[in-house]
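Researcher: First entry.
Model:
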Amino acid sequence: MAATIEMQACTSTDAGTEATAAAITFRANDSADNNSDNPITIPGSGTTYSYEKWLRWKCTAAPDTQCTNFKFWGPNSTPGTGLVIYAGTTDTGVTPTDSDSSVATTRQDTNYYDSSNTLSIAGTLTTIGNETDYLVLQLDVGDTATQGDMTQQTMYYSYDEN
């Protein structure tokens, strides 16, 4: 039987509140929904940070054997002038922050930009309820950004099922 794996957006204390993620929206609040409320303020100088996006994959229909080898990547360009997405992984959830992330510390566009250059996320899902480690993303907004400057980004993930 084919597995069903859902991407979960994790919010609140210890990233402990999960909701199925339809899309990823970088915002100035800790929320799983994907509307454009609470945009990130462009700073007069320096950098402003979105709230971290804590994501993980959850098994909702079990595979025949397992799902493993989870990978993430996105485009090889920034989403706009003065905008940079950072990524990282961890096995322990913490409360998402809008200060400089201690987990999402590697530039996505220059490191995880195609299927040959991916970020690996640990996890072997064998039964319903199993989850991977967390993928953490954060948008850094520099003072050279302009309102409405962010272009839509297409991010990808893959995993092996057997």
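Researcher: Second entry.
Model:
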Amino acid sequence: MAPAKISRKELLKKPDEFLTFSAKMIIFAKEHSRKFQYLGMGLLGLALLYLGINTYLNHIDKAGQEAYNIAFYALYKNTDLKNNQDKSENIEELFNRVIDEYDSSKAARLALPEMAYLNFLQGQYEESIAYYREFLDKMPDDPYQSLARMALAVCYEEKGEFEKAIETLQYLVSGRDDFFKEQAMLSIARIYRIMNKEEESNEILEDFIERFESSQFLSLAKAYLKE
């Protein structure tokens, strides 16, 4: 049986659902006006807090970058720091200022490998390793990760910790960057030779020759293999 039709006049008499809902919300808001005031004040407070923190962090980032630029320029124009400890220490102080005073800035994290490099030049390998490791921990997605790992391996090699150097380089061999993968494999082969592990070295070199047939370092790998 077809449902009875409702006339247009009857439809007009029925209250609009949206208007009814809106009216209920207005009444509810009036009855709880004090709570809404507190909520509004709370949201305003959160907005002001966010704005303040954001402004502060932007200021720290800018100031940190300026301090980093000063330190980096001093490093760039002094190329013979290995034989000049005083200048090296002065530049270390500049980078330390970036790390200590602007520790929440990105520049502070970028200053870590510079400090590692300066310590390496002075033969302070433990300190250098600590700075490189801190950088790797704080900047896991940084494009200079591979370069930092190469430098870290050199620090271990200088300390005579060859197994740790190889372990660090193996991480790069399993990575995606072919340039650093090539460098890492050749370095591992060289370190194995220092350790008098010629068989392991040759295995790495043979693998290298097979993987990177068009590498610019192919002739070097073949020369190592013939030694």
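Model: Note on the second entry: Residues 143-227 form a domain with the Serine Threonine Protein Phosphatase 5, Tetratricopeptide repeat fold (CATH 1.25.40.10).
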